[in-house]
Amino acid sequence: MPVDFSALASSNDKAMSLLRRVKDSALGVVSTTSFPAIIGVADAMIKSSDVYLVGYEKTGGGQCSAIVRGGVADVRMAVHAGVETAKRFGQLVSSSLIPRPMADMEKVLPILPRLSELDGVGETQMSSGAIGLLETRGFPAMVGAADAMTKSAEIELISHETIGEGLCTILIRGSLSNVAIAVEAGMHEAERIGELSAVMVIPRPLNDLERSLPKVKQAKKPQKVKLPLKLEERQKELMPAQAPAVEVQKQKQLDLPEPELVQAQPPTIDVQIQKPLDLPEFE
C-alpha cells in the first residue's frame, strides 16, 4: 500500500504548529491526593475553557497533578474550575498559574506534550459513552472490585494505575448506565475485601481526556506474510550424496624390496673329530 507522504507531512506540520502554540502559552497545574479525583479535575478543566491537556504527573505519596496549557485567560478559568472540583471531592492539595514559563522550565519539566502525542490534542469532540474509575487502598480490593464490575454490567476494562500510599485505581469504559451499575457493584466488593478510597464517573468525556488516560500495553501481534499467488517452482538438481571428508593420517610406506621365496635348509653343525692317539700296545 503506497504511503501518502502529503497527508503525513500535513499532519506533521499541524502537530508542529500546535506544539509552537502550546509552547508559547500559559501553564496551569492542579494537584490532588487521588487519581480518580485528578481525572475529574482534568475533565472539568478542559470542558470549562479552551485549553490543552498535556497530561498528569505522579509525584508519589498518593499525589498527582493535571497539567494544561493555553491562553492566560483560558488557563485561569480552567484552574479555577479544577480547584472547585477538587474541593468538592475534598482532595485538593494545591494549584498554580504561570502566564509565561521560561524556556529552561519547558526543557526540564514535563509541561509540554510529546510530538508523537499531539495527534488529536485540543479536539472538543465528546464521546457517547462514559468512563468510570474506582480507587482502593490495597491491590486485592481493586482486583475484587474489577471482577465484580466486569460481571455486573457490559463494560470494558481500560487499565489500572497506582500512585503510591497503596492507592490503586481501575479504569473502565462503557455506556453511562452500565458504567454506573459496574461502579456500584465494585464499591460493595471493594468495601467487603478492603478499603474503598474514591470513585468517579465521567459522562461524555472529551477526546483530549481519553487520549491522556493510561492504556494497557498490548503485545504486538505477529503479522502474516503475504505470498504471491503464483510461484514458479524450480527443479532441484539431484546431487549425489557425498560422504563427509575425514582426514586419515596415512602411514609412510617404507621402500622395501619385494620378498623372495627361499627354501629352508636344515641347520648344519660343525663337529671336529680328533685323530686317535698312537698308544703302545700292551702285551
UniProtKB/TrEMBL annotation:
<comment type="similarity">
    <text>Belongs to the bacterial microcompartments protein family. CsoS1 subfamily.</text>
</comment>
<keyword id="KW-0120">Carbon dioxide fixation</keyword>
<keyword id="KW-1283">Bacterial microcompartment</keyword>
<dbReference type="Pfam" id="PF00936">
    <property type="entry name" value="BMC"/>
</dbReference>
<dbReference type="InterPro" id="IPR050575">
    <property type="entry name" value="BMC_shell"/>
</dbReference>
<dbReference type="InterPro" id="IPR020808">
    <property type="entry name" value="Bact_microcomp_CS"/>
</dbReference>
<feature type="region of interest" description="Disordered">
    <location>
        <begin position="238"/>
        <end position="283"/>
    </location>
</feature>
<dbReference type="InterPro" id="IPR037233">
    <property type="entry name" value="CcmK-like_sf"/>
</dbReference>
<protein>
    <submittedName>
        <fullName>BMC domain-containing protein</fullName>
    </submittedName>
</protein>
<dbReference type="InterPro" id="IPR044872">
    <property type="entry name" value="CcmK/CsoS1_BMC"/>
</dbReference>
<dbReference type="GO" id="GO:0015977">
    <property type="term" value="P:carbon fixation"/>
</dbReference>
<dbReference type="InterPro" id="IPR000249">
    <property type="entry name" value="BMC_dom"/>
</dbReference>
<feature type="domain" description="BMC">
    <location>
        <begin position="26"/>
        <end position="110"/>
    </location>
</feature>
<dbReference type="GO" id="GO:0031470">
    <property type="term" value="C:carboxysome"/>
</dbReference>
<feature type="domain" description="BMC">
    <location>
        <begin position="130"/>
        <end position="214"/>
    </location>
</feature>
